[in-house]
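Human: We require from you a standard protein entry with sequence in single-letter code and fold as tokens, and nothing else.

Assistant:
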Amino acid sequence: MFAAQGDRGGVGSSDPNQQHWSQSVEVEQGGNVLVLHPRSKWASLGITPANVTVAEVGYYSMYGDVDHWQSLEPRTDRSLMRKVAREFCQDPQEAPLRVDFDLNDGYANAALDGILFKQQIPVLTEWARQNAEDPELRAIKDQIDIVSTCSTLANLMQALYDNTAGNLIFGAARVNGKVVVGSLIRPDIHGVTEGASNSRTGSGSRQGRAKFWGRRFEVYMTADEVVENLDGGNGKVAAPRFRTVVHAKLSELNLLLAAGVDATNLSGNDHYPKKYVDFATVTRKGFESSNYTYRGHMLRWWTNNVLNGTGTLFAGVHNNGHVMEVKQYSIDMLPAIVKAKEESAGTWLWDPDVCLGFLHALLKFVLNKVAKPHVNVVYEFRCDKEIGAFTSREVPTDIADGHDYLQGDAVQNFLA
């Protein structure tokens, strides 16, 4: 699934396929094309984790039906923020936690409803409307270049290393001087990549069960009460209802991002957003494979959290939904763990400087292209797998399809 060995993309790496891709499209005058490969060029930009700063500027709990974003009411409080159960709060350097979790508990066709939540930006814009006079938001609104979600930008960074991804496509629009970047949602597109459909997470599918397992793991990890008494119904395994809003700086770029928060660790002296934690599940077979763990999982875990400041990740290692062990990682230390594995195994995996350099260049490309206001035109950015380069096109707003991130009345005055 992931890039072949020897294709980490760091400075000095070489791959004939990368050279072929880099020559398949010439960059036109004015920067009309952004060529992905060779990956090494992104590391040479010098954008490193040290060039990323994250500050929480807001948060909200979402009340209503997560399957229908129009019903959601963002409340500026932490009432729906889940907390890591006391017995799981320990130092990441300690031995793995021994547990006995059955992730299949409560699984049913109906239980798959609400496990995903994709309409983050419309809820973010409503929260911003409600908090327009908040001093922290007012202090940064004129600095913001890009508005998006951490998951959208993480998917783009991951795709640079995923050779099996379909054609990459996402939308963007200029709203009150800011560029909003969001996933396109229409029958031929699911998230950032084209070609998958919502049926992938439908009842009975492997992906649907895996998503349920992830949500069930979150319930176990945040339950202080006796686990046997937990209700296995839909409400207990739905997507997290708490969001953080962060001002992330990627070198000189200012990003306003919404991010889902799985839970918070109330022990220790960290401040928000470092107190937030992420949860993940991984099969025992996958965990024991270097490709899946270091090249796949750790890439996703890091890219999912580097721009939102989350401090810790708990990974539940399972056999067919039976978790016996939970491993704990510091998000900041994941690149060093991967680097150590590269050196011991004599292989190339992935490079955080490549991820951040590529994202920085892509966002600059988007900012340059998205010039007209959203009331007239929206933009679609596409990278055909066969070509290996991003191009953009304008679409008149009145005929555009799938730009759901612009839904809601609050978008008209967003950060105005």
User: Anything to note?
Assistant: Confidence is low (pLDDT under 50) at residues 1-7, 10-30, 195-204, 225-235. Residues 190 and 196 are 6 Å apart (CA to CA).
